[in-house]
Design goal:
single chain; about 290 residues; alpha+beta; Jelly Rolls; Arc Repressor Mutant, subunit A; two-stranded parallel ribbon; 12 helices; 8 strands; globular; Helix-turn-helix domain-containing protein; transcription; DNA-binding
Length: about 290
Amino acid sequence: MKIIPVLHIQQFEPDVPISDFYSNDLKTHLERNRDFFHKPHKHDFYLCVIFSKGSGVHEIDFNTYDINPGCVFFLKPGQTHYWTFNSNPEGYIFFHTQDFYELHFAKSKLEQFPFYYTNKNTPSLVLSSKDTRQISSRFKDLNNEYHNDLLYKKQKLSSLTNTIYIELARHYTDTGTAINNASATYTETLYAFEKMVETFYRKEKSAKFYASTLNITPKHLNRIINATLDKTTTDLIMERVILESKRLIVHSKNSLLQISEILGYRDYAYFSKIFKLKTGFTPLEFKKSYP
């Protein structure tokens, strides 16, 4: 049985009528949720947080990121993460559902922003001291609006959220690490492919299946992925399989044989061989090596 809790926005402030948005200053948020923020968990919403003080480590899907003043993190639904702090953090955090944003901006999608564009873009950004102060003030305005009951509250919240994302996307793009320089058609196809992989990766691992479902040839799908991410179709499928393998190995009570079967491999030896090829460890070695 999987033991990674999936958190919903309503769990954070059940008495607040807005069920698709949440905001708080980071100190208050962490104090209220001190029982679980340091344990691996998932969300079914988008999360954005900025640190103005504090230090520590943020682990997101087995990748470790340092926490320091100026750090911003972006999480998409389904990612596993947790925090470890060496000193008391300060800053702001907000969550929202996909519908919250896209219902207010009918012609825009969250994946237009580079940090949500693809799973291969880093979920972190480091701002200068000056930019941290400027962006933090935007977060503060958003937080104040959330905690007041004024006319057109949702409209203002969505507008402020969009402004924050636009400013962060500009800084993110300036770092030169963003992958988002493909044509609109390639971008849409990549996004559709990643969503499809998220749905079918446990059963379907062939490029032919995904290409057929997208009504394109396997060769063209591979061309799109290579042009946008410098990877192959099979690379992306297997990266998703290996990520889920790691999650289940570390955060579930399933046996390694059960995990192999859950991921569509009836032959455990074959699954173990693929896992070692991709990670350098057998599933058992990885389980023992992870704290």
